Amino acid sequence: MTTLSQIIAITKGVKAQSLRDFTDAHRNTQKAPLLSGISRKYRPKDEEGEQLPPESTRVQLSAEDVLAETAKTLTRLFDLVLTQDTANTVAKADVVVDGQTLLRDVPVTYLLFLEKQLTDLHTFVDKLPVLDPAESWSFSPEIGAYASDPVETVRSRKVMRNHVKAEATKEHPAQVEVYTEDQPAGYWTTVKLSGALPATRVKELRERVEKLQQSVKFAREQANSHEVTDYKAGDAVFGYLFAR
Hints:
This protein is α+β, with helices and mostly antiparallel strands. Helices cover 45% and strands 25% of the residues. It has helices spanning 4-29, 32-35, 63-90, 108-126, 199-224, 234-241, and strands at 38-40, 55-57, 92-97, 100-107, 137-140, 145-148, 151-166, 175-190, 193-194.
């Protein structure tokens, strides 16, 4: 029994090798010396003339041979990709979280999409703003945000004061020092507002994403264990393309 996961693993290596072989074949067919040869014989004009040996250079590469080898190399790739793509249309699995089926009969290609999206969502959730733990917060429906406990602070004002350092005499005026004094003028009641989230909420969201990630990976592995049917496409394609 061949499973989809095995086909995926094999196809990756075959793709890489096929690309190398195809590139080499293309490069070699562009090298004129490999495709060229010569065969010539010398004949003197009379019997007394100099005798020279024949000369020949063999053709090192046949374009028809390259076509045949290319067809052989790519036929395996074409067959594997068709087998994989066909299996992808029928390989499905349920996404189950905590015993509850969240999604039913999800194709393996969509499971791969979900994995990528959940990776991005995990980063997103992990970076969500968190409420300052130094404050005590409660959600205010009227404001639509979190509000801290009210804190009262004093507002002061400056009041000018005089201090007589020396009383006036007939000879000298009084020596007076002027200074300011802070006196309470009122009270500020401050409530901080925030659109951030409690740390417990962010932790809960992160755990949900991670749990769903694990479930999707399990579902993908289950879908990839689907038994595949080998399909053939290469012979038909290259039988038409390179037919003589």
